[in-house]
Amino acid sequence: MDLKVYYQKIRDLEQDLKAAFADVVSLETPDGGTAGVMTEVPARIAAKMIVEGRARPASREEDRDFQEQKIEAKRVADHVEASKRMQITVVSESDLRALKGAKALVKQ
Predict the structure, then answer these.
(1) Following DSSP, what letter does each residue of 44-105 receive, concatenated?
(2) What CA–CA distance (Å, rounded) separates 23 from 15?
(3) Rounded distance between C-alpha atoms, residue 108 and residue 103, angstroms
(4) Is this structure's pTM higher than 0.85?
(5) For 97-106, how does the pLDDT look when each residue is reduced to its tens digit (9 = 90+)?
(6) How far is it, in rounded angstroms, from Cα 43 to Cα 49?
(7) Is residue 46 within 8 Å of 57, Cβ to Cβ?
């Protein structure tokens, strides 16, 4: 393999991507690569993966679906993180009655 041609292909493809990051879909490879895995990678790495035949650029529809999945995953992660910070206090029934009684006295 001519290294000059190889790196020129990567540079050309990187310029064609026109974005800092690109979504790619993996292809099955003889060394165990799994087909169909969506990934967002820097343009340089995306170009290298495409030139090597390890991935293909994602279609517009795949890209849109992947972005929606990332947004939903972020929402779920934020919700889980917020639930970890939530503080709960367990109050016995007698303490609750005492609190309600004290509240009623304050209102009068």
Answers:
(1) HHHHHHHHTTSEEEPPHHHHHHHHHHHHHHHHHHHHHHHHHH-------HHHHHHHHHHHHH
(2) 15
(3) 9
(4) no
(5) 888 877 665 5
(6) 10
(7) yes
